[in-house]
Amino acid sequence: MSKFKAHMKITVPMLAETYKFCLVLAISGGLNVFANMFGFFRSIPVELKESACMDVASIYRTFYTIILPII
Questions:
Q1: pLDDT single digits (tens) 14-39
Q2: What pLDDT is attached to residue 60?
Q3: What is the rounded average pLDDT for all residues in the chain?
Q4: 39 vs 34, 35, 42, 45, CA distance in Å?
């Protein structure tokens, strides 16, 4: 059994040991979340935003009272 363990050497690729690789992973994860949220906000019907505008709601009030509860 000790022979088997001696031949099992786990190596880490050189790319995974760099800070650049960690930075790429962090950015790609953030971009994925941004893309999902962007797609979600574009899918909200325009009529909801227009009805809030007709009720003289500001952009912030529209976000907090109409869009945020949908999330």
A1: 666 677 777 877 788 778 888 888 88
A2: 92
A3: 79
A4: 9, 6, 5, 12
- Please tell me the distance from the alpha carbon of residue 50 to that of residue 57, in angstroms, as a whole number: 10
Asked if 62 and 70 count as a contact pair (C-beta separation under 8 A), the reply is no
Asked if the model's pLDDT at residue 55 lies above 80, the reply is: yes
C-beta of residue 52 within 8 angstroms of C-beta of residue 65? yes
Using the structure block, give the residue that is written with the tokens 């000790």: 2
Residue 67, both tokens: 């869009």
For residues 64 and 67, give the distance between their C-alpha atoms in angstroms, rounded to a whole number.
Answer: 6
Specify whether the CB–CB gap between 62 and 47 falls below 8 A: no
Q: 52: which residues sit within 8 A by CB, 6+ positions away?
A: 61, 62, 65, 66
Determine which helix (DSSP H) or strand (DSSP E) holds 32, and give its type and residue range. helix 19-43
